[in-house]
Specification:
The protein has 178 residues and is mainly beta. The protein has one domain: Trefoil (Acidic Fibroblast Growth Factor, subunit A) (Trefoil), CATH 2.80.10. 10% of the residues lie in helices and 35% in strands. A four-stranded antiparallel beta sheet has the order 1-17-2-7. The chain has a four-stranded antiparallel beta sheet with strand order 3-6-15-14, with no helix packed on it. The chain has a three-stranded antiparallel beta sheet with strand order 8-9-10. The longest helix has 10 residues. The chain is globular. The chain starts with a strand and ends with a strand.
Length: 178
Amino acid sequence: MIIKNALSQASLSMLLIAGSVNAQTIEISLTDPLDGYLDSYCLSLEGNENDADLTKGLQLHTCSSYQGTASKLQMFDRNELEHNLLYLPKADVCAELTNLTIGSSVTLATCNSTAEQMFDFSGKGHIASTVEPSLCLTASLDTRLSSENFKQQVKGLTLEPCSADKKRFQTWQTRMLK
């Protein structure tokens, strides 16, 4: 079963209070499906279930939950969201911003709770750096087919100025997986 929640401070708090103390996993997806024909796009590692490429950072990939189960490459620890971390427990890494400039990608690193690993989930559904809150995680326009499953689609992910004009590419939601 999948429960959708908009990424806002209020809904994030409700999500965290409603769950158990144990770590639970969620998907983080765009609210707009854009050109996705199977499902929306989720934040994801690159690679396959047994061989993720951590050197390539985060990307967007067709959410796997449409198949009835989520990919471990797309599972984030919902409890860490309370601490502003994008933690992927199956790979034991956190998202990190090594460059805080327009067009920068999101890398992965061992979790250390530094400022570069802190993300703010705004009431507008944006995910932005706590260091540079005017820059939001943004889906790119380009789309390619996955090399692992040719029905699934992949998009790039970069930091771009938070903007109402880019709302479709910058508004995120969580889906709790049970």
